[in-house]
Design brief:
Layout lengths: L3 H8 L6 E5 L5 H9 L4 E4 L2 H10 L5 E4 L8 H4 L5 E5 L2 H13 L4 E7 L12 H9 L9 E8 L7 H21 L9 E3 L6 H6 L4 E4 L6
Bound molecules: pyridoxal-5'-phosphate.
Length: 217
């Protein structure tokens, strides 16, 4: 790995869009190279791996958790995680809140929506999310902060389909912003776009792209 691909990706992202470098399965040495080049935000999808990297690397790195999170593994990341992109159920959110409280923290979270035409991807449906927001328990969760939404498009060459799915996520974001979070200035992120589709995602108003393989080639 050289820094060439990192520079190419970084230069293709407009100001106002945050690059989360997805470093899952990559060694600490490669993360250090990117750190030395100025990168401070890294995404991981396995709690124990993220914890080990957090312990080995400089403490001003912002660690974003991007994968499906099992409740029994929240404990590994709760003390330090900056943003959890992958809240996909009310019960997970409640457990994250519990661990955040234990650690005396407020943990920022994104609501992951199911937008793809695949049965393998996690995420809320609109109805599930609406039910959660209406539940009185939701308003009692004081140690989490909902910072926006996240979604993954279908893995396909069909760019029109990918664009349609990102438009749908942007629509969910706007609807939540006006109906539930209009007074919450922290509700502002749309995490969408990976190596193969981040350029479309940015056109559809992504604020955060999660890019791995295009950088670590
Ligand atoms: C692996 C992963 C990415 C990065 O995928 P690339 O295609 O390597 O850029 C982004 N988001 C999630 C949720 C991932 O699991």
């Amino acid at each position: 790995m050289g820094l060439l691909h990192y520079d190419v990706v970084l230069n293709s992202i407009p100001p106002g869009v945050k690059l989360v470098v997805v470093s899952k399965m990559r060694p600490v040495e490669q993360i250090e190279m990117l750190y030395d080049a100025g990168q401070r935000v890294f995404g991981e999808n396995r709690p124990q791996e993220m914890k080990a990297k957090y312990e080995a690397l400089p403490k001003d790195i912002a660690w974003h958790f991007i994968g499906h999170l099992q409740t029994n593994k929240i404990k590994y990341i709760a003390p330090f995680v900056t943003l959890i992109h992958s809240i996909d159920s009310f019960s997970l959110l409640q457990e994250v809140n519990r661990h955040a409280e234990k650690n005396n923290r407020i943990i920022s979270c994104l609501l992951q929506f199911f937008i793809a035409q695949e049965s393998t991807k996690y995420g809320f449906s609109w109805q599930e999310c609406a039910a959660m927001l209406k539940n009185p328990v939701f308003a009692t969760l004081k140690n989490i902060k909902i910072a926006g939404v996240m979604g993954m498009a279908t893995f396909t060459d069909n760019k029109a389909l990918i664009r349609e799915e990102f438009k749908k996520l942007h629509g969910y974001f706007m609807q939540l912003k006006t109906q539930h979070f209009s007074t919450h200035s922290d509700f502002k992120e749309i995490s969408m776009g990976m190596s193969d589709d981040y350029e479309i995602a940015i056109e559809e108003r992504s604020t955060m792209v999660r890019v791995g393989s295009a950088i670590f080639v």
